[in-house]
Amino acid sequence: MIKQTLEIAIIDDDEVDRETVCRLLKGQHTCYEAATEQEAYSLLEEHAIDCVLLDYHLPKADTFKLLSSCVDHFIPVIVLTGDERPEVIVKTLQQGAQDYLVKGDVNQTMLNYAIANALEKVSLRKRLDEKNHRLEEKNEQLRKLASDLTLAEQRERHRIAQILHDDLQQQVFGAQIMLRSVQRKLEKSDAANLNGIYEQLERIIRISRELTVDLSPPILKGEGLFETLRWLGDEMYKRYELEVELSQGSNLSIPGESMRIFLFRVIRELLFNVVKHSKTLQAHISLEEKEDELCIKVKDQGAGFDTTRLEPEHQGFEHHGFEHQGFGLYSVKEQLELFGGHFEIDSQIGAGTQVVLKLPGYILL
Question: Which residues does 121 contact at the CB level (< 8 Å), separation at least 6?
């Protein structure tokens, strides 16, 4: 609610103009006068000014700097000047002034209306700014939670990987040694019957090693994202013969461990989708940072699909083959949004698929 009596600063080098405005406001509000930029700043520091009436052509002054300072402190500004050029009016309003009144045409009713309107505008802007600030704080809390969850999940994956490596693999390897010892004591015909068991144990060791790497890739412990993805490309070729071409548009640095882990898992999921669904053995990953935004593209020239089938009314993401160990595209979408990002899918049947991940630069640290 706007209070009845206001403290108003009249900033104008012309004493007659200041006196004219003071007469219009006399008996209604408390007026303070300033003739120079320095006097204006002193006045704003000494008093709780509710509204500023500012001469646009204040001599030897940076009027827009003064205007910007008022805007930053949520002080309404009404520009008073004899300059009626449209470009000047537009410029002052763009810089944050709430209104623009021409000297000589101003009367008491017009001035009071302009002040009340300016106060209401700034009050609304201040409330909106406060709400946006609270919303940003909540978003930051969500990003922190998402980061903590990513690290906690990775620690658990590492723990399980250690169990597989230190316990399961060692136990199976020990069983192989015992089996070989038994084979040496048997007749050749009987020993040969145990070769199948030995080979089965060998497959168990290989599978557990692959699972260990899947759960906690050693490359994640300290390398940059580009090096991590190059390692991932080599792994995809070894296991699935998928050739992954990798390009980087700039010197990309992502020091945040949780973000590197998250992006690695997302891109790995997208490459798995290429292997499973695209009917091609080639994929391309590009990394680019521009305009404070990280853009990652994963592209193939494979079978493609109808993107309308990803809409909720068509049963959602998970019913169209886009899933891998519970980390499908729907999960990718949700987690990207937690980090303040989003992704886009462009695909046509027979013309391949491109998935674009976009993340704001401020969360990459």
Answer: 76, 98
